[in-house]
Amino acid sequence: MLNALPEKVFDWAIGIVSVLLVGLTLYTAYFGVFPDGLQRSAHLLLVMALVYFAALRTLVRADGLSGLSATLQKLWILVVLAAGIIATGHHIVNFDAINDRWGEITDYEIIFAVILVIALFDACRRTIGWPIVILAAIFIAYGLLGAYLPDGLAHRGYSLKRVTAQLYLGGGGIFGTPLGVSATFVTGVVVLGALLEKTGAGQVLMDFATGLTGRMRGGPAKAAVVGSSLMGMISGTAVANVLTTGPISIPLMRKSGYRKEAAGAIEAVASTGGQLMPPVMGAAAFIMAEFTATSYLTIAKAAFLPAVIFYAVLLAMVHFEAVKRNIPLLRDADSTTDWASIVKRSYLLAPLPVFVSMLLNGYSIMLSSFWAVTASVIVSFFSRSSAQTPRRMVETAVTAANAVIPVALACAAAGCIIGIITLTGVGLKFSTLVVLLSGGQLPLALVLTMLTCLILGMGLPTAAAYILVATLVAPALVDLGVGLLAAHLFVLYSAMLSSITPPVALAAYAAASISQGNPLKIAVLACQFGMGAFAVPYFFVYDPALLGIDVTWVQVVISFITAIAGGVSASVAMMGVFAYRLSIIERLGFALAAVLFLSSDWWFDALAFLLTGALIYWNLRKGELHETTKTEIGSEPIKTTSKGETQ
User: Fold this and answer.
1) C-alpha to C-alpha distances, 623 to 324, 580, 586, nearest whole angstrom
2) Would 337 disulfide with which of 211, 254, 429, 530, CB 3.0-4.6 Å?
3) Element (H, E) at 592
4) CA 325 – CA 154 distance, rounded (Å)
5) The dihedral of CA 410, 412, 415, 417: what is its sign?
6) pLDDT confidence of residue 414
7) 95 and 38 in contact (C-beta within 8 Å)?
8) How confident is the model at residue 4, as a pLDDT?
9) pLDDT grade, residue 237 (50/70/90)?
10) Would you state the pLDDT for residue 543?
C-alpha cells in the first residue's frame, strides 16, 4: 500500500513536520516556553515523526525492494512510529492528570514507557548509530539488575515500575534537562545556522578566510582552519563543519601539495574545534549552562580565549607541516581575492552581531536567536539569489530539522542514562573511583578523566558525550579542587576530541569521504595536528585566568601569551621543525619549554621564554650556516617538484 504513495507525499510530510518543529521553537522563543512536559514531549514527537517519515521515504524510493523483507520493514516502521506518537502524545493530552499524580505511574504508563524506550532506541540507531543505544541499554539494565552485582557496584535494587517512572515521568529521565535544552536553546540556534548557510553567509566567511590566508605558506590549510573556526559560529557540530568547509578547503590543500590524509586531518581538527568558538557554540554549551547553573554568556566568555589558543596552535601545526613538506606559496592568479565582492555580501552576516548584542544586553538565548533569525530573513531579501521565499523557507526548515534530529535523540537517550545515574547514585561511585585511582593527585586525575571521556565519547555526538561525562567524571575534578566551570569545560573538550580519536572518529571519517584518504590514518594524523586541543584543557585547569574568572586583565593577557607560547613550543617539538629541521636535543628543549609554560609561576614562564628564545636563535643560526656552507662549496640550488617536495 505504501508503494502506491508517490515519494512527494513523504517529502510534503517531512516539510510540514519540519515547519511545525521550527515554528514551535520560534513561537515559544517569542511568546514564552510551554510547561516542560508539553514543550519537550511535542519536540520529541515531531523529531521521531521526521525520522520515520524519512525511513518510509527511503523504502519507497529504493528500487526493486519488495517481498517479505520490505513488508516487515515497513510494518516495523509504522509500529514504532505509532508507538512513539502514542507514548509522547500521552504526555501532551494528559499533562494535567500526570502532574496531579506527582510522578506516580500507572500500569498502562509502564507499557508506554517500555514502548517509548524501544522506539527511541530504534530512532537513535537509525540516526546516530549503536553506541548511544548500547550505553543507554547498559545503564537501564544496571537500574533493573544492579542489585545482583558485587559490592561496590551494586545498589539496593529497583523494580520495573520504579525505573520506568524515573525514565518516563521523572524530570531526570527521557524528558529531562538535556531534551529541554534541545527543545528550546539548541533548535533556535540551529535554525539561525541553517538560515546563514542558505542565505550564503557561510560562503562569505569561507571566502574571507581564503582571502586572508591565500598568500601564506600552506595558505589553503590555514584557510581551512580560519574558515572552520568561523563556520563553527554557525553550525557548532564537527561533522557538519567538515561537510560544509571540507569540499572547498580539502581540494585546495591537495592542490597546494598536502597529502590527502594530512588535508583530511587538518579539516577534521579545525571543524572539531568549531564547537568551542563563541558566540554560537555547540549544543553542549547550552547544556553546560543548565548543568552548572551558569549563564550561557559567562560560558561563551570563558571559552573564548581557550578557543583562540586552540586555533592559534593548530595554525602553528599547519605552518610547520608546510615548512616540513616544503609546500610552496600560491602565487598564481587563482589566489587573487575579490575583496570588493566579499565586502558587498557582508550584510548577510548582520544576524551574528544582532545575536551577540542581545546576549550582551541580557536577553535570553531563545529571544536572541529569534531576532537573529528575523534579521537573517530580512537581509536575505536584499538580493534575489538569497531571498527566503516560502519554498526556500521550507527548505531551510528541513535543513534545520535534520540538524536537530541527532541532537534531540541523543539528548533523549542520554536522559535515560542520567535518570539511572540519579536513581542509583552510580555517578558518585564513579567519581570516587577516579579519585581513588589517581591517589588524589590532580595531574593523574586529569589524564584519567580525559581518557574516560575519550572512551565514553566514542561514536557519540558531542552533546551526548558531554552529558555522560559531565554526570560521571566532572564531580571528581570538582572534589579535587578544580573550579566548577573549569571542570565542565575540561570534560567538554575531552568529549569533543572523541570526534578525531581512533578507532571511532566521526569527523575523520567525514573528512575521509572528501579527501579519499584512509580514515584511520586521517584520525591518527588528526590527533597529531590536534595536539593543541589535547593540551588546552590542562592550561586552563592549572591557570584559570584563561577563563577570565575573577582576575585582572593583566593576568589574563599574561596567561594568554604564555599559553600560546606553550602550545606553539609543543607544536615545534611535535613536528620536528621550526625554520629548519630540529635535532633531537632541540625537540626535547621545545618539549621542556612547553611543560614549563604550563605552570602559572612566572619564574617558570621566564625560564621557558629564555629557553625557547635560545632554541629559536640556534635553529635560525644553524640554518644560515648550513645555507652559507652550501653556497661556498658551489652546490646546486634545491630543486622542487610540482608537489613542493625537495629532490
Assistant:
1) 14, 6, 13
2) 211
3) helix 584-597
4) 56
5) negative
6) 83
7) yes
8) 55
9) low
10) 83
Q: Quick check: is 424 in a domain?
A: no
Cα 267 from Cα 263, distance rounded (Å): 6
Residue type, 78: L
CB atoms within 10 A of CB 314: 29
Pair (249, 395) in one structural domain:
yes
Does 70 fall in a domain?
yes
Degrees to nearest 5, angle at CA 583 with 578 and 587: 65
For residue 646, the SS3 value is strand
Three cell numbers, residue 313: 596552535
Nearest C-alpha neighbor of 36 from the set 190, 191, 188, 173 = 173
* Phi and psi, residue 609, nearest 5°: -65, -40
- 33 and 145 in a single domain? The answer is yes
Among 503, 515, 620, 504, which residue's Cα sits nearest to residue 221? 515
Say if residue 111 is in the same domain as residue 184.
Answer: no
- pLDDT of 227 higher than 80: no
Nearest 10 degrees: Cα torsion 397, 403, 407, 408: 30
CB 220, CB 249: distance < 8 Å: yes
Tell me the Cα Rg of the chain: 26
Instruction: Identify each DSSP E strand in 455-498 by its residue range.
Output: none
- SS3 at position 344: helix
The pLDDT tens digits for 423-476 are 888 877 777 788 888 888 888 989 988 888 887 777 677 777 888 888 888 888
Domain that holds residue 33: 2-154
> Which of 267, 302, 215 minimizes the C-alpha distance to 489?
302
In this prediction the pTM is 0.73
Cell matching residue 444 = 593523574
pLDDT, tens digit (0-9, with 9 covering 90-100), for 11-45: 899 999 999 999 999 999 999 989 888 999 999 99
Please check whether residue 467 lies inside any domain of the structure.
Answer: no
Residue keyed to cell 548543568? 291
d(CA 205, CA 268): 18
Q: Let me know whether 18 and 146 are in one domain.
A: yes
Question: What values do phi and psi take at 505, rounded to 5?
Answer: -125, 90
Give whole-number Cα distances, 391 to 15, 248, 379, 597, 631, in Å: 10, 27, 17, 55, 67
Task: Supply 353's cell numbers.
Answer: 552581531
- Say how many domains are in the chain: 3
Cα distance between residue 488 and residue 474, in whole Å: 6
Closest CA to 10 of 439, 576, 398, 545: 398
Residue 214 clears pLDDT 80, i.e. is over it? no
And the C-alpha cell for 225? 582552519
> Is 443 within the bounds of a domain?
no
Amino acid at the residue 559: S
